[in-house]
Amino acid sequence: MAESEIKWEAPEFENRERDVSWYWISIIIAAAIIAFAVWQRNFLFGIFVVIAEILIIIWGDRKPRMVAFTLTEKGIGIELGKFHPFAGMENFSIDKSADGELWDTIIFHFHGKFKIPLMIKLPKKRLEEAKAIIKKSLEEIDYEPSFLDSLEKLIGF
Question: Domain coordinates of the chain in residue numbers?
Answer without folding.
Answer: 5-13+65-143, 20-60
